[in-house]
Amino acid sequence: MRAPLSLFLFLLSAMLQAGSTPLTFSSGEQQVSLIELYTSEGCSRCPPADRFLQSLGKQEGLFSTFIPLSFHVDYWDYIGWADPYASPAFSDRQRRYAQIHDSNRVYTPGFFINGNEWRGFFQRDRNWRGSLSRKKVGVLSVTYQHPTSQATFEGKLPDSARLNTAWIGLGLESSIQRGENRGKTLQHDFVVLQWKNQPMPSSTVTLTLPSPPDNGQQRTGLVAWISQSSDPRPVQAAGSLLPSKTTIH
Q: 33-60: per-residue pLDDT in tens?
């Protein structure tokens, strides 16, 4: 008999807490690009963008040259469906991007690559790889063993550096009962379930992370990136999926 997913996630969390083999991952010296999608389950135009982000999980270079992230915003919740993955902090992050690009407008679906608006999704060719950065910025390495994580950056830290860490979920599914997507079943990958932002005053920093959240996802990943306190655009990023017997959709 196949064990239920909730039991598997419980056992995985228990193994991490019990001091199992640490999860270690790093970027190369060249910049790993963050591809950020700002989306909402309450937005009728968002499911195609969600599917596009899902498709990136099958592309060459995942986690080594690019990392997809799906930030669910809360500013559409008022139209009838409260997105379970939405956070005011994610909406604020998108608004901060709008500010640094001299714009007073946020919208969904909205894509940013390395903090720069990417409108290629709305074009026929969708040449997203042409927007990836491969400049040499330094190596970001992360070691996680519950509840402690250590991040090290071999390169020049930006002024007022910040370390961002995010738990992400893949293989999530929602049955929408109200709002613009009423009656639809939506699938999501690379959803940011939890995001933490803290100062990084030196090239090595140790932090305490909570256990991976259990939102019913089939896969769980950890992503880290460096930015500045005054500028959310990522300088370098690294990420990995936690061990699992399941696969990316």
A: 999 999 999 999 999 999 999 999 999 9
Tell me the C-alpha distance between 74 and 196, whole Å. Answer: 18
CB atoms within 10 A of CB 66: 24
Say if residues 86 and 46 touch (Cβ distance below 8 Å).
no
12 phi and psi, to 5 degrees? -60, -45
Q: Tell me the one-letter amino acid at 81.
A: W
pLDDT tens-digit map of 117-175: 999 999 988 999 999 999 999 999 999 998 899 999 999 999 999 999 999 999 999 99
The pTM of this model reads 0.89
Give yes or no for a contact between 135 and 31, defined as CB atoms under 8 angstroms apart: yes
Residue among 126, 221, 60, 103 nearest 116 (CA): 103
Cα 49 to Cα 39: distance, rounded to the nearest angstrom: 8
Name the residue ranges covered by the structural domains of the chain.
5-241
User: How far from the centroid of its chain's Cα atoms is residue 119's Cα?
Assistant: 19
Contacts 24+ apart (CB under 8 A), 85-89: 85/41, 85/172, 85/188, 85/191, 85/192, 85/193, 85/215, 86/40, 86/41, 87/195, 89/195
| Segment 194-223 mean pLDDT | 95
